[in-house]
Design a protein that fits this description.
Elements (H helix, E strand, L loop, with lengths): L2 H22 L5 H17 L3 H8 L9
Helix pairs in contact: 1-2, 1-3
Protein name: DUF2892 domain-containing protein
Organism: Candidatus Methylobacter oryzae
Keywords: Membrane, Transmembrane, Transmembrane helix
């Protein structure tokens, strides 16, 4: 699994978890959903993704798997 796929998987998981928490616990969890979405948006324009940096340091392979 490449860094890109892990980032997408983690972001999607965080969004779904925060939506469940907002539904069952408190609507304030929607701020976490907004934070994840904003981070994805800014990384699309700047190329800076903190999770990708962490995963690279952990030794997850980057680049295309072809």
């Amino acid at each position: 699994m490449t860094i890109d796929r892990v980032v997408f998987a983690v972001a999607g998981s965080f969004i779904l978890i925060s939506l469940l928490l907002a539904h069952y616990h408190s609507e304030l969890w929607l701020w976490f959903t907004a934070f994840v979405g904003a981070n994805l948006l800014q990384s699309a324009f700047t190329g800076f993704c903190p999770l990708a940096i962490i995963l690279k340091k952990l030794g997850i392979k980057s680049g295309c798997a072809f």
